[in-house]
Amino acid sequence: MELFTKISTLQEALSALHAKGFTIGFVPTMGALHEGHLSLVKQASGMADIVVVSIFVNPTQFNDKNDLANYPRTLESDMELLNGHGCDYIFSPTVEEMYPVEDTRIFEFGNLATVMEGEFRPGHFNGVAQIVSKLFDVVLPDFAFFGRKDFQQLAIIKEMVRQMKYPIEIVPCEIVREEDGLAMSSRNKLLLPEYRKCAPMIYQTLRKANDLAKTKSVAEIKEIVRREINATQLLEVEYFEIVDDTTLVAVKSWTEPGIKVGCIAVFAGKVRLIDNIIFNIN
After folding, report:
1. Residues with catalytic annotation?
2. Is residue 164 part of a domain?
3. Residue 223 phi/psi, 5° resolution?
């Protein structure tokens, strides 16, 4: 496993591998790694000859400066965690390396970027598209791996790849959870004990909603989820929407065509947690 901090040296190493016909798998992260990230690396190592993991806290996707400042940065422990788990190269550049000049590109993703996360985090997905496209241009991967926990981000990345005609296969990876059901997230480390204790209520409520969907309407399910999570007092729902898994358009009835996904954002104190569930209503 080798650490790179400069674009030029990483590209030199990868160029030689590309020339030999090796396939490259890429796992972009913001660090503070956990078992969820390792599952992406494991899947990448099973599909590609060489696995590159980027560790970069991208400033352009934070619309809250305090959130950016507080985001955990744990490069040393991240490297220890990755060692022996299928990662070949780590790319951990500085902000100046990735943004020698301001990136003023504006991406157009339509409804995909304006609902849910897009509504409550304006500019977030434009920043995501900026950094992921920059990283794709550096790594030139054959495959890129993204977790389904960030369901809306996954839809955005797929659309960006389509628009920019990247010859990259985007591989969605399943959500990895703690034993109590809480979706693994780098932000979990920021949870105070009392909030961490009640945070599993989010997924428990989503599972209950999936069971109730066989007898309750979409509107009723949305009301039940918000009411039950907010009743814990330490948790506050920012949004809960049930959407089409491709267009992210809100659905009004279970009879509408397509797969329905329940996407949620919840504040546990000052820490914002997201999760989702695919509804099985058959």
Report:
1. 37
2. yes
3. -70, -40
